[in-house]
Structures are given as C-alpha cells and as structure tokens.
Amino acid sequence: MMEQEITVTIKDGLHARPAADLVKKLGTVSSAVQLYSGQKEYNPKSIISLMSGTIKEGETIRVVVTGSDEEETMAWLNDFFAGKTL
C-alpha cells in the first residue's frame, strides 16, 4: 500500500474532461485507488463519484494505492494531478 498527499495543480480542478481521463486510465490498472478530499472518499474509477466532488485547483488530496502496480500507478497519479498527462 502506498499513501501520499498530492496538491492538485490541474487548471480549474478536476472537472469533466480530466475526470474522464482519470477514469479511463485507472480502468487499465490492477491496483485499487482511493481519493480523499477532507473527510470525503471518492472512487476515481467512477465518473459519477468524481463529479460528485469538488476537487479544485490548489487543493491537497490524499491518495491511497494498493496492488501489484501501485508504484507505477502512484507515479502516474502524481503526474496527472500536476497536469502533466493532460
């Protein structure tokens, strides 16, 4: 299990397009991923779960990744939330 706090630097936060990109990418990984914003937990493999949140630019989230490809997944998530994969 890997856990990390990441500051979202995606312009305008996690809106529809980046949320869709996140769901698409995480559908290809075997690790389980959980996102926490404050006390709320979001399933990043579900567009509905992500869109129910209001993860904004500049917000710090907690990311937990568990599974066989957790290191690669966490590295990709760091790049994603930094806006490097969009």
Can you lay out the helices and strands and say which pair or pack?
Blueprint: E1 2-7, H1 16-26, E2 32-37, E3 40-42, H2 47-52, E4 60-66, H3 70-81
InterPro entries: HPr, HPr-like, HPr-like_sf, PTS_HPr_His_P_site
Keywords: Cytoplasm, Phosphotransferase system, Sugar transport, Transport
Domain HPr: 1-86
Characterise this structure.
With 86 residues, the chain is an alpha+beta fold. It contains three helices and four strands; from the N terminus they run βαββαβα. It has helices at residues 16-26, 47-52, 70-81; strands at 2-7, 32-37, 40-42, 60-66. The chain has a four-stranded antiparallel beta sheet with strand order 1-4-2-3, with helices on one face. A hairpin with a 2-residue loop joins β2 (32-37) and β3. It is globular and about 30 Å long. The mean pLDDT is 94.
Number of strands: 4
The stretches of 5 or more residues where confidence is low (pLDDT under 50) are none
User: Helical proportion?
Assistant: 25-40%
Average per-residue pLDDT, rounded, comes to 94
Give the termini distance in whole angstroms: 26 Å
Sheet with most strands? 4 strands, antiparallel
Strand content: 25-35%
Instruction: Output the radius of gyration.
Output: 11 Å
Name the structural class: alpha+beta
Taken from the alpha-carbon principal axes, the silhouette is globular
Element-by-element helix/strand order: EHEEHEH
